[in-house]
Amino acid sequence: MSEPPVPEHPTLPRLRDAVQHCRACELWKDTTQAVLGEGPRAARAMLVGEQPGDREDREGAPFVGPAGRVLDEALAEAGIDRAQVYLTNAVKHFRHRTHGKRRIHQRPTTEQIHACRPWLDAELAVVRPHVLVCLGAVAAQSLLGPRVRVTRDRGAPLESNLAPLTFVTVHPSSLLRAPDAAARRDAHAAFVRDLRRIARELG
Q1: What contacts 172, CB < 8 A, 6 or more positions away?
Q2: pLDDT at 101
Q3: Residue-wise DSSP of 47-60
Q4: Which is it for the CA torsion 10, 14, 16, 22, positive or negative?
Q5: pLDDT value, residue 66
Q6: Strands 102-105, 45-49: parallel, antiparallel or unpaired by DSSP?
């Protein structure tokens, strides 16, 4: 493994180009491309998920698959314009296993998360969001450390030197795994409540 080729003076276009050459972990070997974040450079909110999924890997953009649709619906319901936030992931390549023709998501390892952290730090340095939102445990523990618990800490501001306001909530993919329609409704409502708190902070 090697050091990530993060530009010394990063901009989003330079990061988007440089990340394609990253060999800091082995995930690049079996993917279509690295997926950097997307959104305005001066976005007031940055939302960080886990990693690209199958659709994201093929299309080169974050949150364009099923979890992205869930996120879009919840953001709209909470009154947050997706076009005004910066969306990214803690890990930039899709970790998966192959089952027939399908590529099945696998959680990234601690080593892979650490290897990718310089890219996320560079995105934070460029965007400098007022509000940072960690979507799910991988993003939360990558940025805030192992003591963070999403179910316990969700929806309330946390201390962090990464942004003036930092929150954690569930990853939208968790709503897709709810066991039945009633559980999905409850999970969706709780997710929207968290995002409405963030919307209030954005003013």
Answers
A1: 49, 63, 67, 68, 70, 71, 74, 135, 191
A2: 84
A3: EEES---HHHHHHT
A4: negative
A5: 95
A6: unpaired
What domains can be seen in the chain, in order of their start residue? 12-202 (3.40.470.10)
C-alpha to C-alpha distance for 62 and 92, rounded to whole angstroms: 9
Burial class of residue 146 (count of CB atoms within 10 Å of its CB; 0-12, 13-18, 19+): exposed
Is-contact 198 167, C-beta < 8 A? yes
If DSSP codes are grouped into helix, strand and coil, which group holds residue 77?
Answer: helix
Helix or strand run (H / E) with residue 87: strand 85-89
Note the pLDDT tens digit of each residue in 66-76. Answer: 999 999 999 99
Residue 69's contacts (CB-CB under 8 Å, 6 or more residues apart) are none
pLDDT at 29: 93
Quick one: pLDDT band at residue 1, thresholds 50, 70, 90?
A: low
Residue range 51-61, pLDDT digits in tens = 999 999 999 99
User: What is the Cα 163 distance to its own chain's centre?
Assistant: 15
Pair 159, 148: CB distance under 8 Å? no
Residue 100: which region, alpha, beta or left (left: phi > 0; alpha: psi -120 to 50)? left
Contact 160, 143 (CB under 8 A): yes
CA distances (Å), origin 131, targets 9, 45, 201: 23, 5, 8
Do the beta carbons of residue 56 and residue 19 sit within 8 Å? Answer: no
